[in-house]
Amino acid sequence: MQVHLKIQRFNPETDKEPWWSEHDIEAEPADRVLDALNQVKWFQDGALTYRRSCAHGICGSDALRINGRNRLACKVLIKDVGKKITVQPLMGLPIVKDLVVNMEGFFAKYRSVKPYLINDEPEPERERLQSVEDRARFDDTTKCILCAACTTSCPSFWAANGEYIGPAAIVQSHRFMFDSRDHGDQERISIMSDEMGVWRCRTAFNCVEACPRGIDITKAIAEVKMAALRGKIE
Ligand code: SF4
Ligand code: F3S
Ligand code: FES
Questions:
Q1: Amino acid 75: pLDDT
Q2: 65 alpha carbon to ligand 3 midpoint, in Å?
Q3: Given pLDDT bands bounded at 50, 70 and 90, which one contains residue 199?
Q4: How confident is the model at residue 234 (pLDDT cuts 50, 70, 90)?
Q5: Closest Cα to atom 7, ligand 1: which residue?
Q6: The pLDDT of residue 62
């Protein structure tokens, strides 16, 4: 099938404003949008710049705004988005070049929630045991691949000029707060209670729609809000 791609471009060395390049390509309906971008880069315009690595929905590096919605280019089939495809960088993060955004602010927020096990008790001889039920409490939030599709689709994130900690960091905080082996809940509750923490969420639900891993982000956010209200995990 014939596909028409419209891609937002920006080279900070030569451009004052973003502009659009347009490309006609031949593609199979079951090709992914990433295949279409590759065709443009490999056969039409080698300067086109975007991130990708695994091509299988695992690394989270090719989250893009495709026909106005945040998705992974390697997971979206062309037949599902149609013959006219618009591709833009994620909104709310500074553009480095074309479709590549600067993720440093995003990862700084991730680091700020202490995304690692906090437990000062002496290490047991073997592993720290956990019941199946306790493991299930945070199973959903372990699926996050840090693609930023949620945070960069959130109106509260845009409204706070990127200062709001955002759903991805809250998901990561949830993953450790609700882990029965972790003892860092007070530290994380305090981080979440910051002016730019979990209470900036206005339950817009854009994050849930954007998540390529199908994580129930608003449920995780509600549980973190409840923990912040009670001052402890229950
Ligand atoms: Fe991506 Fe989903 Fe993780 Fe957000 S929660 S960073 S959308 S995988
Ligand atoms: Fe934003 Fe998701 Fe809350 S889109 S406002 S973090 S429900
Ligand atoms: Fe790795 Fe798409 S290239 S998630």
A1: 97
A2: 14
A3: very high
A4: confident
A5: 211
A6: 98
**Locate tokens 């860092």: which residue?**
184
Average pLDDT over residues 117-144: 95
Give the mean pLDDT of 164-170. Answer: 98
In this prediction, residues 116-128 reach a mean pLDDT of 93
For ligand 3, the distance from its centroid to the CA atom of residue 58, given in whole angstroms, is 6
For residues 45 and 27, the answer to whether their CB atoms sit within 8 Å is no
Task: Count Cα atoms within 13 angstroms, Cβ side, for 83.
Answer: 5
Tell me how crowded residue 197 is: count the other CB atoms within 10 A of its CB.
24
The domains of the chain, with CATH numbers, are 2-101 (3.10.20.30), 104-230 (1.10.1060.10)
Ligand 3 centroid to residue 175 C-alpha, Å: 22
Q: Is the CB of 144 under 6 A from ligand 1?
A: yes
Question: Which is the closest atom of ligand 3 to the Cα of 55?
Answer: 3
Q: Is the CB of 51 under 6 A from ligand 3?
A: no
Residue nearest to atom 8 of ligand 1 (CA): 144
Instruction: Give per-residue pLDDT as tens, 37-68.
Output: 999 999 999 999 999 999 999 999 999 999 99
Q: Which residues, listed in sequence order, are joined to residue 25 by a DSSP beta bridge?
A: 3
What percent of the chain lies above the pLDDT cut of 90?
A: 98
Give the closest residue (by CA) to ligand 1 atom 6: 146
